[in-house]
Write a structure and sequence with these properties.
The structure is a single chain. The chain is an alpha/beta fold. The protein has one domain (8-188): 3-Layer(aba) Sandwich (Rossmann fold), CATH 3.40.50. Helices cover 20% and strands 20% of the residues. It has helices at 34-40, 119-125, 138-151, 169-178, and strands at residues 8-13, 47-53, 93-97, 130-136, 155-164, 182-184. It has a six-stranded parallel β-sheet, with helices on both faces. β5 (155-164), α4 and β6 form a beta-alpha-beta unit. The longest helix is centred in the last third of the chain and has 14 residues, at 138-151. The chain is globular and about 45 Å long. The termini are close together. Bound molecules: pyrazine-2-carboxylic acid (VGL) and zinc ion. Zinc ion binds next to loops.
């Protein structure tokens, strides 16, 4: 059992309407993690940080602009809102990423061109040493965030039953374990 302490942060990645079933970039089962995260949020984390993918219209990641993904999480739209059923009383910080037309940001720490979002210095300032990660999509933004968290010096855990992926879960697990990131279940935290 892992005992959650004030030096621990919970990072909730992109639990937004567009990534839920019915959304424009739906992650299968994405809605199933919300109740798990709502329980995790009551544990005594020193910080609970939620991210939002927050794109301008005609963002470079959209198919219509030569990118990979259908239009999603356009800033200010209903699809970009945090999931309605996600409790927000325990969220202390909201970080928006992917805000510039010409760059994408899968990771909450650095954009895809390597520029910092400021998250690591923010967490350093809060005295955070361990990071626990939940959210969507396991094989895209969760994995990118976990790898950067570990690289930046945080002891990093992915809470597997609090994540869902778009592609192969097995491949994501390999990428995480290759760099020494721990994979845990939500009932292993107290
Ligand atoms: C994501 C694809 C495009 C994610 C964001 O949150 O995993 N995936 N933008
Ligand atoms: Zn995106």
């Amino acid at each position: 059992m892992i005992t959650v302490k004030p030096q621990d942060a919970l990072l909730i990645i992109d639990v937004q309407n567009d990534f839920l079933p019915g959304g424009s970039l739906a992650v299968p089962g994405g809605d199933e993690i919300i109740s798990v995260i709502n329980r995790l949020g009551r544990l005594p984390f020193g910080a609970v940080i939620a991210t939002q993918d927050w794109h301008p219209v005609e963002h470079m990641s959209f198919v219509g602009s030569g990118g990979l993904w259908p239009e999603h999480c356009v800033a200010g739209t209903q699809g970009a809102e945090l999931a309605t059923l996600l409790s927000d009383e325990f969220i202390s910080i909201i970080l928006r990423k992917g805000r510039y037309k010409e760059s994408d940001s899968y990771s909450a720490f650095f954009d895809n061109a390597g520029r910092t979002t400021g998250l690591s210095s923010l967490m350093d300032g809060l005295g955070i040493a361990r990071v626990f990660i939940a959210g969507l999509a396991l094989d895209v933004c969760v994995t990118a965030t976990a790898k950067d968290a570990q690289k930046t010096g945080f002891d990093t855990f992915v809470i597997m039953d609090a994540c869902r992926g778009i592609g192969s879960v097995h491949e994501a697990e390999t990428r995480l374990s290759d760099v020494g990131i721990a994979m845990v279940q939500s009932d292993g935290l107290a």
